[in-house]
Amino acid sequence: MIELQGISKIFNLGKANEIVALGRVSLCIERGEFVTLIGSNGSGKTTLLNLIAGTESPSTGVIRISGQEVTRLPEYRRSQWIARVFQNPMGGTAPDLSILSNFRLAALRTQPKMPTIGITEAFKKEVRDRVALLQMGLENKLNQPMGALSGGQRQALTLLMCVMDRTDILLLDEPTAALDPRSADIVMQTAKQLIEMHQLTTVLITHNLKDALQYGNRLIQMENGDIRRDLCATDKAQLTLKDLYAWFE
Amino acid sequence: MEFYLAAVLIGSCLSSMSLGIFITMKIFRIPDITTDGSYTLGAVTTAVLITQGWSLGFVIGATLAAGALAGLLTGLVHTRLKIDALLSGILVMTGLYSINLTLLGRSNVPLLQQNNIFDLLILFKNTVYNQLIIVFLFILIISGLLAYILRTDFGIAMRATGSSESMTGALGINRNAMKITGLAIANALTALSGFLIAQYQHFTDASMGIGIVIVGLGSVLIGDTLINTLNIKLLWVQLLVVVGGSIVFQMMLALALASGINPNMLKLLTAVLVLVIVGIPQIRLRRSL
Do B160 and A55 touch (CB under 8 A)? Predict the structure, then answer.
């Protein structure tokens, strides 16, 4: 599904403050895999995710999605495969727009946005039903601006928005980092449900090692811009939290 | 009385421009001052085509296209060359001054005997009332169209572009194309104000656009203050409030002039007025802290 070949990313090339964020990483993620990405700050996790999403382009190497080369394809064109949840709860939604409008755009992620009215009664009902599944009572507040909601509510809604349109790949960049433990739990549970229901290929970045153990069927540890460890589901199942902590010492 | 009705009329004519500035400033959050140029461009296009005998419908279309082209240019400079929006606007506006002068042929063209949108309707003896009805209808249609566009899927994508950078890209919206489109729509609306004013005052002047962006800015700020204090959520009401802001602004200028202020001081007065509108909420805020 996702193929990275000899990918490197160097910021400020040739200047005194040159930083090698990623050095010649190759990685192949199969359809339906749920990869959990861990690593200390500056290890290159977010850069890797941004390269897949297309917000940054690599200094060297080739990126393929679904067999198609996308190395130079801008972010908004890659959205035909990829849906994302950002670390910042403000990132994935438009705060000035209503919940309904946000969902309308999400429903058109892979399609052109035409000058026709798309928020019909049928669409409202669909959104209401989907939002009701969160059991946050938001289904009656669909006309409220997104900005009026709490971080946890916004992250949960962003997740739902990810599957409003056809999705192959879900990128989760520390989706619970800004949330309290209870909201974080709801968001991760919702993510798990949606990933299973829609059989999404997923990459999750997390600093929460408990989450890293609990979620995903492949675990990758990044260090200094390279892949340090890459564990398949069976190896991952035998890990304990203690092992994981030891990796960071 | 006539004096104030004239202010209402001018305010209505300029409200199309205010709607344009509302789009760039409040929806896209881009400070665009191509306005001075595209407003005059609208008036120049109108003068040139009307004197050649073209129908009003055609002139409206051409005016919209000319304004959109100006906005497109600013948008391209801003997004492709990554030049600050403010500077992009200044560059295009400055260039347009020469273009306007060239198109017009001389600095001032009178429009006395030609087709005039304000002569289309004769219901009352007093021409001011006829003019008012025409301009109100015109602005109502424009606001209605705009409100419709903003409610469509395309319009939602436009509004999202100004609201969240990261979200729009992730949802397959080409942010640069959206900004360019927004600037084109805004400047097309601005040109339409030039179209109306040229016919209202029966002439086009190459320098009539100098400082007009401040008038639009002041109108939008009045509208915005009302939108915030009254907590207006409905988009079409917001648009009508901006039109109202444009009329209120002209009324305030008219009041000041009626009180005996030297007309040479008009631009200074306009600037001070906008300063007061922007400044008062700040002063009030500080006191309440």
Answer: no
